[in-house]
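Intended use. Records such as the DUF5689 domain-containing protein entry shown here are meant for training and evaluating sequence-to-structure methods. They are not intended to support clinical decisions.
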Amino acid sequence: MNKLCKQFVRFSGGLVLLGALAIVSCKKTFDEPPYSGGDPVIQITNSIADLQALYKGSPVTITDNMIFSGVVIGDDKSGNLFKQIVIQDSTGGINIQLDASNLNAKYPIGRKVFVKAKGLTLGAYGGLLELGLGVNDQSQPVRIPSAVIDSFLVAGSSGNVVMPLELTADKLSQKYQNMLITLKDMQVATSDMGKTYGDTTKTATSVNINLVNCANATVVLRSSSYANFAGIKVPAGKGNITGIYTFFNTTSQFLIRDTADMRLLTGTRCDGTSATTITISDLRKMYKGTDVVIPANTSIVGTVLSSSANEAAGNVRIAQADNSAGVLLYTAKGSPDYAQGSVLTIDAGGATLTAFNGELELKNVPVANVVVKGNGGVTPRQTDVKTAIANKSIWASTMVTLKGVNIVTGAPSTSGTNYTITDATTGNIVAFVKDANIKINAPLTNATVTGYLSVYLPAGATDTVTQLGLRASSDVTGGDVTNPATNIVLGTSPYLIDFNNIANGLPAGVSVKTTPTSTSIGADPSGTFLWAPAKASWQATGGGFKNYASAGDASLGMGSISTAQDASTNRALGVRQTSAVEPVAFVFEIANTTGKSNLAMNFNLQSLDTSSKRTSVWYVDYAIGDNPTTFTTVSATGTSLVTGGGLYTNNLITVNFGAALDNKNSKVYIRILCTEKTGSAGNRSSTAIDDVKFSFQ
């Protein structure tokens, strides 16, 4: 530690900003590697536990090039955390003080964050460890100024899930500080029942609610009066709660992110009294084969599973938090659309529980009786097709994940598309997709699909059909795309291929591959790299094979916006590479060249996104035979075989194969490919090919 950094911890609060800026000036500047949509290439040197071990009772400024990472488990979205985030890795958690608002926009729950800790200060407030930049005159860490946050924090991938550690309240200790914990079998103390989480008058800036279990182990639930749920009453039942464990001196405290963390407090209390809220499982048990009116003062809590765009008007699928039971909620057409993940509290008194086309349904619920109480999620059960069908009646309106399935396009429908899902077990499940934004690149083999089960009784049938509801294209992952069923058959020269109809599929004999090598044709794309027939913008940075507007459209130019691109009927087959998938290939499978000679190929190679500074070098090779293991590079001529570099180009490329492919009675494969690492820095290019022509004698 240099002299300036040693003296900084003694400065008064009035000099904090000056000291903070000084520390930034004396820290090494890290070069942040460019990345797109995932984690940056940053070497982790330490864990959060290593960081915590540095604290010996007084603030310490970090002088080593310490870099650690963690996943955000607490942000400021609900307002219950203010100017701070909490991150956790496999060894522990840490509170990071940040002098900025709306942190959830950049650092939402589930975002991986890389922390370059050199120059930061590790201290404590009431014994709870915090990370900041310097200290105030009370030796407490000071928030990192907004202007320099990016010098210390790098945002990585999103959607990461931290599973909470399950404990009973008596097992809480300082080693669990700033970690996501599920406390088992807790209830609000009798003295605090009926209170709200916060004080809406703001007379008290925060409110303490006592939580207790049946063994009288206690913890304080502390909530900000500025949280967006401050005016909501705490639940009256007993169950598990999830939140971040903190403490102030000797007082154990629990911090929830929003009310979804308390949604399981619906069970019978320790004294045997029942809350007015029942589980969806208990609701389903009320149905005995005929319609039943739900008794007054009966409520249920459920998390929305469905996407309104893929359901009939008024249908909402909800499940209880543990995914053990669900129900179809039917509301009047024109009622509010409840977003997927919304946690609903429903006053079901007077509503009717019925079976509609084989599906258990709660209907006649006034819109005013449905209240959104936060956001949450459920964990799908992993199963197979046979087991899902066998349990269709009790698993209806709950989430499942099916692995190793085959998906094919089924019978057409006037209102959507049917897909048939099978696996190695017996039976099949139908996925009906009415939302045009959901794209499934069927046929697929060995895929994973997640969705909610439902059942349907067709007219005249005696047994229900098992269905799977999808919410988004991302519900289908992995899988092998079936290659085109036909080859390119060279008839009359020239043989022309444009891509103006690729929204309906790739042309015969054309496929796309990842990881091509000189000895392998490459792998069928998977995940986000699956061929996506929907129109894509040149500027979209997500990786994958795409349907781009062609640079051959004279009405377009380097500054054309997405709407103009989408309007173009002149299309091109394209790709956006990523750090994870750089080698890619466009493949042309020719049935044979029997009786043909002097084969030549022309195509337009297009560089489309001028904001992409990295460069990709392309070349052409060929192979002969049904399953070739040797590919030969051939000379290609044209203005440039390089895309990216901030350029907008449409270069004509010519390839002459000479006699190499004359009169071959077996398959001929020709690839346009990039196998090298992309050059320079910044975003990777949006590359496309168009107007492919094979000429021959």
